[in-house]
Amino acid sequence: MDHKDKYKKGKPNVSKTKEKRRDEEVGLRKRRRDKFVDAKRLRLDSATFDDTEEHTKEQVIEVAKAIQKRGSAGRHDQLKQLKRMFAQGSALIDAFLGVDNALHALVGLLSGRDPTLQLEASWCITNLSASVHEHCMVVLQSAAPYLVTYLSGQNAALQDQCCWALGNLAGDGPECRDRLVDQGAVKPLINLLKF
């Protein structure tokens, strides 16, 4: 082996250099796009910005149990609290989903007859669906048929919120997107865009 070969590099391989630069650019664009999408996925209201309190898993569990009780007073406030909790991240969502029948109760409020509770429940589901893939799959299985159904309803605020939740679910990846297409989400979305 020549002394020069040990310490000097030969001419750079142009194709490898181009490929490396292209891969770096693709990675940078993907990170920017992911950051942009993540910033848009959570649905926050003005009260969320005023709420500087950090919530705990215990508080989430307490609210999750409270929404399951029949005739529970203050459900509207509990749902508002839940949507703020879900906006704080996956750990609190894990705590909520760990409570038996909590998601079932939330979907029950979504499918109920009270329009204000339906709207708040759909907002909670929107923030749930902005989380990690596993959470999206659970929400997709439980709530997506109701979200798709409400796209054809008469409540414009609920339609908007359901669109937002479905957008979060579809944005999670091809698996979720394809399942939403199979559940018939495309036609009602197109009909909403026609207005």
Automatic annotation (TrEMBL):
It holds the Pfam family Arm. SMART domains: ARM. InterPro entries: ARM-like (IPR011989), ARM-type_fold (IPR016024), Armadillo (IPR000225). Residues 1-11 have a biased composition (Basic residues). Transmembrane segments: none annotated. Coiled coil: none annotated. It comes from the Eukaryota. Residues 1-30 are annotated as: Disordered. Residues 16-28 have a biased composition (Basic and acidic residues). PANTHER family: TRANSMEMBRANE AND COILED-COIL DOMAIN-CONTAINING PROTEIN 6, TRANSMEMBRANE AND COILED-COIL DOMAIN-CONTAINING PROTEIN 6 TMCO6. This is IBB domain-containing protein. It comes from Patiria miniata (Bat star). The lineage of its organism: Eukaryota, Metazoa, Echinodermata, Eleutherozoa, Asterozoa.
